[in-house]
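User: Okay, second chain of the day. Same drill as before: sequence in, structure tokens out.
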Amino acid sequence: MAWVKAAKVSDLAVGEMMQVAFDDEDVALYHTEDGFFATSDVCTHAAQSLSAGKLEGHIVACPRHGGKFDVRTGQPTAFPCVIPLATYAVEVRGDEVWIDYEA
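Assistant: Same drill. Structure tokens below.
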């Protein structure tokens, strides 16, 4: 894996998320009360962008069918989603957010 700068801390307030593009993959970056987390941005049920959905606490809801995932673990928490998301390690370095990502 390789650490890649994804955003500045100031880019995301607590409760917000954004899409970060790395090569051919989109990653969702979330800012929760417990810090920053990153998962694949593609819902495993409907191939929809999760960063276009809704983040409540640690749970992101897919905007297409309402399936939900825990952004800390990638585990599905609500039907119709049953396949976990890929997750990525995140570090805050000063005022920058870095994701451990490999193309």
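The first strand starts at residue 2 and ends at 8.

User: Thanks, on to the next one.
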